[in-house]
């Protein structure tokens, strides 16, 4: 397959732009995934400290703050993203 086929572009120039931008997106996605993995690890530290002190895994008032933070920054889809992040960090509730 040519670069044009793979990108859906109609000209070689557009295919070059898309190929370069996709490389940047792949690098950004790698960094985002790394940050998510770091968030999961930090969240686990919090949850373990709370549980071993006799508390519960989940803290809903803090989750409301996290959801609000993402919604303010990213709008309604930010809420969905934060819910997915919270599920990755503490499992399904
Ligand atoms: O901040 C906390 O108390 C956490 O446990 C972290 C965290 C999170 O990943 O943001 C995870 C579970 C809680 O329900 C609330 C928030």
UniProtKB/TrEMBL annotation:
<dbReference type="InterPro" id="IPR010958">
    <property type="entry name" value="Chorismate_mutase_highGC-bac"/>
</dbReference>
<dbReference type="InterPro" id="IPR036979">
    <property type="entry name" value="CM_dom_sf"/>
</dbReference>
<dbReference type="InterPro" id="IPR036263">
    <property type="entry name" value="Chorismate_II_sf"/>
</dbReference>
<dbReference type="GO" id="GO:0046417">
    <property type="term" value="P:chorismate metabolic process"/>
</dbReference>
<dbReference type="InterPro" id="IPR002701">
    <property type="entry name" value="CM_II_prokaryot"/>
</dbReference>
<dbReference type="GO" id="GO:0004106">
    <property type="term" value="F:chorismate mutase activity"/>
</dbReference>
<protein>
    <submittedName>
        <fullName>Chorismate mutase</fullName>
        <ecNumber>5.4.99.5</ecNumber>
    </submittedName>
</protein>
<dbReference type="Pfam" id="PF01817">
    <property type="entry name" value="CM_2"/>
</dbReference>
<keyword id="KW-0413">Isomerase</keyword>
<feature type="domain" description="Chorismate mutase">
    <location>
        <begin position="12"/>
        <end position="93"/>
    </location>
</feature>
